[in-house]
Structure formats: structure tokens, C-alpha cells
Input
Amino acid sequence: MANLDNRLTTVLLSMVLGITVLSIICYTIIFVQPDVPFNPLSPQRATIIAEAKTTVAPIPTLTQPPAATWPPTWTPSPTNTPGPTKTTTETRTPTPTKTNTSTPTNTSTSTSTRIPPTPVPPPTNTPTPFPFAVSSHSSKNNCADVGLQGVVNDVNGLPAANIDVEYGELGVAGSRFKSRTDGNGRYAAQLLSGTSQSAYSNHNWFVQISVNGQQASDPFTFTTDPVFARNRKGCDLTDDDTGNDAGCTPDPCRVDGTIQVKIVNWQYKVAQ
Output
């Protein structure tokens, strides 16, 4: 009986240990590669579901009304004028009758038509400029994530706290997010994770200031470079390798001039 209990205990412990090891392996795979097929909460699946739910209503096309047409004007037919009647010539020449001199007809005086004055066009509304504007912008590269950061200053050039900064990807429906400045007027946002498949291509972005839910600046647009290059397995790019091998692309995160993090600073403009 004791041997049976020991065997049962050994089987149960083996099952618990196997389930625990299997769970650790699954969570490790999901942590390293979030887009595996058996991950129900992968970023790629969440992005596909969000894009599927977003629809853009088509802009209705205005139909030009047909041009108005008018019937042709009726032209009267000309009336035939009878010719002069032939008069029989008399043998005797009659005495000519004195003909009264015709009275001259006064020449009509032309009356000028008064032309109305040209109406004064209504004043054109001048759009009110936004209070915030970009004071400076720069960029830097890294080997981690694609990001956005900067500082917002008030009219006195001091850091402005609790200012909303809206940003998103151009051409992607529903891509609009918000960050808020801290006590030092700084803001930061992660645009793309370095572990995402999207980090291997360029992306176009916008950023603007918002106050009380209303747009307070013109949108500033910029483009970010990939974090990593898509190279074949034969490309061995080390820290000192610039990727000049045939068919190999330099690693963007190690090349000067590439943009993985965009820095955009804002300033409240003084009223003119």
C-alpha cells in the first residue's frame, strides 16, 4: 500500500513539474516574440482588429447640375412689299402742282444710360493664427525603439506643464494618441517598439499641440527610419561594420543621420 502511495505521489509531482516547465517556456517565447500564433494578445493581432473596426466614410461626390437651355427666339418671316403700280401716260401735259416744302424733323437727342457703381466686395475673414509654434527640432538614432520627445514653453520661455501633445501616424485610420507635459514642460512617447515588425520600415508621423481639446498649433510632420535593416543571414554586421558587403544594408541604428527618435520643441507665440 505504501508503494502505491509513493508512486501516485511521484506521478502527481511529475505532472505539476511538467506543466510548470511548459508554462515557463510558453511565457518566455511570448515575451521574446509577442507575435507568435498562440499569443491571443499579440500587438500585431490588436493592430489588425483596431484597423478593421475603423472605417472612413467616403466623401460624397457633388454632381454638377445640367446647364440651363432656352428655346430659340422666333424670327418673323419677311412681308412681301408690293411693287409700284404702272400709271398710264396722259397725252396732255398737266400743269405742275406746287408741292409744299417738307418740315424738317428734329434730330433725336441720345440719352445716356446710367451705370450703377461697382459694389464693394465684402471683407475676407483672416484666419486666427494658432498660439503655439515649433521653436526647434532635431533627431537622434538608437537601437531600441522609435520615439518622440520634446519641451513645451510658455509665452515667457518657461516650461509649460499639463499641455496636451497629440501625435499619430499619417495615413493610418484611428492613429491619434495624446501625451501631456510634466512639471518641466517635457513630453515623450514611444511610437514603435523595436521588437515590432513595423520597426523594419520607414513611417510618416504628425505631432501638434492641443488646448482644452482644441487644436492649438499647425501639425508638424516628420519621417522615421527603421530601427533594424532587413538583411540576409550571411550579413555579419558588427559594431564596426558599416554594411558595405555586397547585398548588405547598413544597420540604421548605428549610422549617423538616421532618425529613430524625433525631438520637437514648442513655444507659445507672443501676440503681434
About this structure: Residues 97 and 168 are 108 Å apart (CA to CA). The mean pLDDT is 79. The helical segments are 2-32, 43-53. The two ends are 96 Å apart (CA to CA).
